Amino acid sequence: MIISLIKARLGRLGLAFITTAALVTALDAKPAEAQAAYGSYVGVGGTLGLSEDDNGDGDGFGAVVSGRYKLLAIPLSIRAQAFLLNGDPAVVPTVSYDFPVSWQTDIYLGAGLSLPFGGDASPVGDQTAFVLQPGIDFAIPASNLVVFGNAIFAFDAFEDGGGTATAVQAGVGWNFGN
């Protein structure tokens, strides 16, 4: 009910902006003084689909497997997320531009595609769609753990109407470096 109220007042883009801003504020980010948080990771977490098609499919909770390969020479990463346990599976590969906030925190904006496997809508829809992915990665000091969070906006992602699919993800990954 609370998510529906926020969604109705702010829209999906406003909700994603507030989510990202809250994550950055919660981490008490300082101005960038060192290299970006670096390293590649693989992780697991949860997803919340915030939109549905005209049949009521696509919203609700599911699981996500997330990966990042950080290109150290330039501020780009190759990312992928697999959506499971809510509709048919889907994979979302993206390329992101990473903005260092501190030595352990990156915020990023990625672009890519949503690739569904089947006709039952996942949190990112049920047809191939262009996606934008704002997010944040936080490397936990003195460990190999990374906390990640992002939103995915998949444009024209539903075969049966409904327009843009919006999903929010969060989880924990294992940083294996580069």
Structural features:
single chain; about 180 residues; mainly beta; Porin; 1 helix; 8 strands; elongated
Number of strands: 8
Q: In one word, what is the shape? A: elongated
Q: Determine the strand fraction and express it as a percent band.
A: over 45%
Please give the domain count: 1
Q: Architecture, CATH level 2?
A: Beta Barrel
Q: Give the class from helix and strand content and strand pairing.
A: mainly beta
The count of helical stretches stands at: 1
Summarize the structure.
This protein is mainly beta and 178 residues long. It has 1 helix and 8 strands; from the N terminus they run αββββββββ.
Question: What does this protein look like?
Answer:
The chain has 178 residues and is mainly beta. The protein has a single domain, classed as Porin (Beta Barrel), CATH 2.40.160.20. The chain has an eight-stranded antiparallel beta barrel with strand order 1-2-3-4-5-6-7-8. 14% of the residues lie in helices and 49% in strands. Strand 2 and strand 3 form a beta hairpin. It contains one helix and eight strands.
SSE map:
Blueprint: H1 2-26, E1 41-49, E2 60-71, E3 76-84, E4 90-102, E5 105-116, E6 129-139, E7 145-154, E8 165-175
